[in-house]
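Because discrete structure vocabularies remain unfamiliar, we first show an illustrative case, written as a sequence plus integers encoding its fold.
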Amino acid sequence: MSIVIATDLGQPVKRKFERLATANDQSFGSTAAGGHPMGWLVDNNMATRMGVVNALSNGSCHFKVPPGRSSLEVALEQLPLIHPNLAEAEWIVEPFNIPPGKYFPRMARPNHQHPGDFPNQIPPNGCPHEKAAAMLQAESLSERLENAFRTVDPDPQNMNSFGGEFRNILILAATEFEAQCKGILRANEYANGGGNNWNTKDYFKLEAALRLGDFSIGLARYPWIEPIAPFKGWVADAPTQSLGWYDAYNAVKHDREKSFALASLTNAIQSVTAVVAICLAEFGINFLRQSSLLRDIFAVCERPSWSIGDTHGQVSALGPLEPIFYPFD
């Protein structure tokens, strides 16, 4: 099994936390250097630590929030007092963009208690048909790519080689990427155009939601190929052109004779890793773990790190998980 996953809780968060419209001051997360990540719920002017039985009987697991005060501001004042061993630590307090008991459909996140872990699918068995279909497509693309390697060795000298099979792989992978984007947008009731006219301007809105640019995928059987970050450099001002492999797909799809050279080995590899990356962002690490074929070919070299406010605070006592929709606009 060739999966490389860093789970160091001290891993620096790559992106600044941004509060979404789904957040409120009734639930938040807190972290401090040397302490454990904690989730908090506010009810009747009392903040209690999530997941702790009889939190009100434990002085380090509750504090009062005076009427009219922000629970986040009070937490920054009270947490060093109720945790004296961390009194000198720098505390981070952030509202949960995903309130406890809720989830963004088809968007993986780590749990608030382990924010440094690889994001997991929420709920764990959600979207089973969509996940199975995506896995079949990713496996099929990976098999085609490996079969192509039997004809054109993936040597650095051959990366600009082009041909019909690379074109087929590129087109199939790019359309699968589009299918995943549409599925995620549709699941979150993204309403712009209803799906019939969605394009890379719409797909780009998933970059921040899923941190697609933070994924780097290696080919475990071919260690001389540098890890590929298929969404690195994707920008809103040029949502098609800034994805080189996707721009190549558009060109060879519409005018093969003029643009055939863009159906290269490099673009075929990048498009397939793009499918793997978006499925990991969507379904979590089990997308690889549950496929012996995919886990033997691909290695996760880099993946997103999440601030505690962007984790999920699943609490079984709150009842069944309920979906809320990612606020794209």
